[in-house]
Amino acid sequence: MSAFNDYVRTALKFGEKKIYKPEIDVEKLWDMLHQPPGSPVKVPGPINVMPDLAGRHEAKPEPQSAAQRRLLRSCDPVFAAVYELRQLPIQSALQGNLEMHFYTSGHMVYAHEPDLKALHANVAAFIEKTRNGTGR
Questions:
Q1: 70: helix, coil or strand?
Q2: Domain range holding 26?
Q3: How many Cβ atoms are within 10 Å of 73's Cβ, its own excluded?
Q4: How many domains are contained in the chain?
């Protein structure tokens, strides 16, 4: 932690006169509940936002949704997102509004310049499409 603290303060010039606290018990402040679409109350358990995404696409198909995924990460089920998005309970015509991009660089996309450039281009194109309402 001291190396990180020194780097942030010295090289990045961030957090002057602030104390870095690596372990703060913030979990007690989170209710960890989610109110799914159509539910009158929040419910405990793992949060699944796929019904929210499906409801959003059914109500207003544009703008699109984009998933940016890295291919090489041992602790992340990469193709789970692909499976989940393909299983969304939406009209099949709306599946074309879902956009997925994959990067070979693993967890640190920014550390592999070709993938960083591809991520930037993909996100910029997505923003531009949704900004001017052209959709696909």
A1: strand
A2: 2-132
A3: 13
A4: 1
